[in-house]
Amino acid sequence: LTCPPYSPTPEEMRRVLKEYEIGLLVKFGPSVIEGGAREGVNVHEVMFKLERAAFLRGYYPAFGLACGPCTLCPECNVEREICRKPHMARPSMEAYGIDVYATVKDVGLELRVVTSYDQRPTYFGLLLLT
Predict the structure, then answer these.
(1) Per residue in 59-82, pLDDT tens?
(2) What is the pLDDT of residues 106-119, one digit of tens each?
(3) Domain containing 92: what range?
């Protein structure tokens, strides 16, 4: 399971992050995600595919982080503590204690707060490589 309270503690995540040398921030802009996350690109699925592609090209270990709650299944089975797609589920940066706003700002990108339902959000994923 990837969502709190099942995700690692911030201390555990700091140890994990030290294993990686490269972080690729992947932006999913409003023009890519039409109609919201469930109707558009599934960030969790894309990050899984990017992680797999990196691994197959010799980047071991590779680790993909998504954003927000997992959207791979129409209904999550977290109450039973059983994930239906553990091979594809990717934790969110937020769940692992990563400040997404600060991270995005540090690399020179902009992330605006969505203040109304008619605004389209921008999402980010993070691919960690050695």
Answers:
(1) 999 999 998 888 888 888 877 778
(2) 999 988 888 988 88
(3) 10-129
Best CA proximity match to 100, nearest among 31, 57, 56, 43: 43
- Taking Cα atoms as reference points, which of 113, 76, 112 lies closest to residue 2? 76
DSSP 8-class letter at 1 = -
Report the distance separating Cα 94 and Cα 101, nearest Å.
10
Domain count, the chain: 1
* 3 assigned to some structural domain: no
Q: How far is CA 59 from the centre of its chain?
A: 18
On whether residue 15 sits in a domain, the answer given is yes
Beta bridge partners of 65: 126
Q: Which of 3, 43, 19, 28 is nearest to 109 (CA)?
A: 28
Sole residue written with tokens 């700091």: 14
Asked, for residue 1, whether it belongs to a domain, the answer is no
